[in-house]
Each structure stands twice: as structure tokens, then as C-alpha cells.
Design goal:
The protein is of the alpha+beta class and about 180 residues long. About 40% of the residues lie in helices and about 25% in strands. Strands 4-3-5-6-2-1-8-7 form an eight-stranded mixed β-sheet, sandwiched between helices.
């Protein structure tokens, strides 16, 4: 029987975050999504680093089918703190759409899928004011800074409360946050 220390010693580290590769795979598979969360905040100038990429996929059957194929191409696994390398899982459009939040780890780092981020009505709500940007060589829709702030305020997590004053200042300074 192995205790927690032995399991940690045998643990495999999760892959290094390579957001450009992850976003490129989603784009190559035609996945419609909006980038949100900490990585979106970094794009707008937040100095707080993030360990994952958060996206809000469009919730249509066709898009979820493309998303499932993209996740298989990235060897997506369910991420858990106790299993940083992830746990394999089978998925298709229906199973992906039946869960509101997926915390995954892929060949390119951690990827969180959330269909209804706090304080928003999901993809259509965020896509309306999203900015179409080229990030690390990949075209991507990024939630407006105002929407990133709205979601972080609604989530109310400590890590969001820490970054909110900086994001509000960036928005007030008018750095394309709409």
C-alpha cells in the first residue's frame, strides 16, 4: 500500500503550458470558442500569470463534435490535483455538453472548458463583444476586458479578487477593453 508521499514521488508532472499550440488545435478543428479567464487577463496586460487556458465553447452539437475531435487530438484527460497528468476519459459531443465545466490537461498544458462562466450567459453573450486578436500567431476571439472583469467579479474567488483592481485600472486607462 502506498501513502500520499509515495504517490507524489511517482507522480508525473503535467505538461508545460503552450497556449499557442492548444489554441491552434482548436482553430484547426473549427472549434468556435471565446478565450476568458486568467490568460485573457494577461493578454490585456495583467501581470498575474496563469497555469491554464480557459475557453467558452459554443454549445451547438456541431461545435461540440469538433471540440471532441480537437480534444482527442490533444490527448485531453480530466485534470485533478491528485492526478496532475490527468485521467483518461471517453467523450463525444453529447457527453461534453452535459457538463458545464471541464478541467482538463492536454499535451499542451491545462485547458478549462466552461460553458457558462460566472456572471455571463455563455458563448453568445461573450462573443458579442469579443475582440478578434492574433495571439502567439493564432487567430482567437478574446472576451472583452469588461466581460473578463464581470465574470471574475461574479465568481468571487480569492484569486479573482486579487487581480480585479489591476484589471479595473487597465480598463479605466482604456487599453482596448471595450
Amino acid at each position: 500500500m502506498q501513502g500520499p508521499a509515495a504517490r507524489r514521488a511517482n507522480a508525473v508532472a503535467e505538461p508545460e503550458l503552450a497556449p499557442e499550440r492548444m489554441l491552434a488545435v482548436l482553430k484547426e478543428h473549427g472549434v468556435r470558442c471565446v478565450l476568458v479567464g486568467g490568460f485573457a487577463a494577461v493578454i490585456y496586460g495583467s501581470p498575474y500569470l496563469t497555469t491554464d487556458v480557459d475557453v467558452v465553447p459554443e454549445w451547438s452539437k456541431e461545435n461540440l463534435e469538433r471540440l471532441s475531435v480537437a480534444l482527442k487530438a490533444m490527448h485531453a484527460r480530466v485534470w485533478m490535483a491528485s492526478e496532475p497528468a490527468g485521467v483518461p476519459f471517453e467523450h463525444d459531443a453529447a457527453s461534453l455538453g452535459n457538463v458545464e465545466i471541464w478541467n482538463l490537461v492536454t499535451d499542451h498544458g491545462r485547458l478549462d472548458l466552461t460553458f457558462m462562466p460566472s456572471g455571463t450567459a455563455g458563448y453568445e453573450d461573450l462573443a458579442r463583444d469579443a475582440m478578434h486578436l492574433t495571439i502567439l500567431g493564432v487567430d482567437v476571439d478574446v472576451a472583452s476586458l469588461a466581460d473578463v472583469i464581470r465574470s471574475k467579479e461574479a465568481a468571487g474567488r480569492e484569486k479573482d479578487r486579487v487581480v480585479l483592481p489591476v484589471l479595473r485600472r487597465i480598463l479605466d486607462e482604456g487599453q482596448d477593453g471595450r
